[in-house]
Amino acid sequence: MSVDEVLMRGRFSPLKNVLSYDVFNTGFNGWMSLMPNFTEYPDFDVPKTLICKDQYPPAMLSSATYRYPGTHGAMSGTFSLKLSTKPVHNPYCEPPKTGSLGHGLKRMAFWRPGCRYLQIESWFSHTAEQDCMDPNDRPQPGLHENSIRAFGWGFDIQRNGMRTFCGMRYLNAVDGEMKQKWQYMYPTPGTDKDWAYGLEGEWCKRGIDAFWFGKRYQDGHTDGFQWLPDGDQRLCYNETDDKLNWQYVRMKIDVENNEYVEFQCQDKVWDMRGIPTFSREAYGRIDYLLNPTIWVEGGADRSVFLYLDSVLISME
């Protein structure tokens, strides 16, 4: 068994069939930024829409450089995949401001016949920009932990004439107030117009792209994310925002019965059997879609970051 296989089995708990094992110290491995659809006549313009994806910061390979430590590096080697936001935000209950989300995905189209379970695992870290010392930031000026609004992992799947979105979101803070609770992706009842913040003519349908669509409420839930029972969890952030601690996350779903199965972050495991995933009619030209996706959202006028050391996708 090679060193890479030993490390994979030691750090992850893959299902029987490993689809991709991406250690970003070796490159992007097919992960990329979410791009707009350049489809409009006559100059390949972007369709008019509430969400302007051409202002998303690009996914990048990063050595995690900070003022004091210099190059922080990754859990595996020097480079990790870095998702970032621009230093902008809207209040929580408004639609996300252009640039306040960073998004990465791997475009896959593969299905192994007879497989029932699908799983994503990752080692990650999160932090905020070291831009200033804020006298109102407690417990330590410059920590900025409450500038990170949320981040998460999920799948965009299309099969058997249906499109399914599922995922887990860590709600870190709402308008500067720490929440530190997990949510699962599932839309509340409503119309497509409700889903698009009351706007007519949006391309998106209810239940699709809950990262930025679906109304938001001051307690932290949204029309696209529901509270995970017993979902409170304080993640490791360290004493300053120039120290990274790599943490583990895993989500398993049942694609035959359309339900969540299990979620794990660090040493805490949630049995999610009986909680459904959401599907609706398929979109054109994306049959057999199997896109893992990861995102981060800022909640202050400073950039925030999500680092991915490695990601493993498996099925059985």
Question: What do these coordinates show?
Answer:
By secondary structure, the protein is mainly beta. It has helices at residues 3-11, 192-195, and strands at residues 17-23, 31-33, 60-62, 65-66, 70-71, 80-84, 101-106, 117-128, 148-159, 162-174, 177-185, 225-232, 247-254, 259-265, 268-271, 278-281, 290-298, 304-315. Strands 1, 3, 6, 8, 13, 14, 15 and 18 form an 8-stranded antiparallel β-sheet that branches. Strands 2, 7, 9, 10, 11, 12, 16 and 17 form an 8-stranded antiparallel β-sheet that branches. It has a two-stranded antiparallel ribbon with strand order 4-5. Strand 10 (162-174) and strand 11 (177-185) form a beta hairpin. The longest helix is centred in the N-terminal third of the chain and has 9 residues, at 3-11. It is globular, with a radius of gyration of 19 Å.
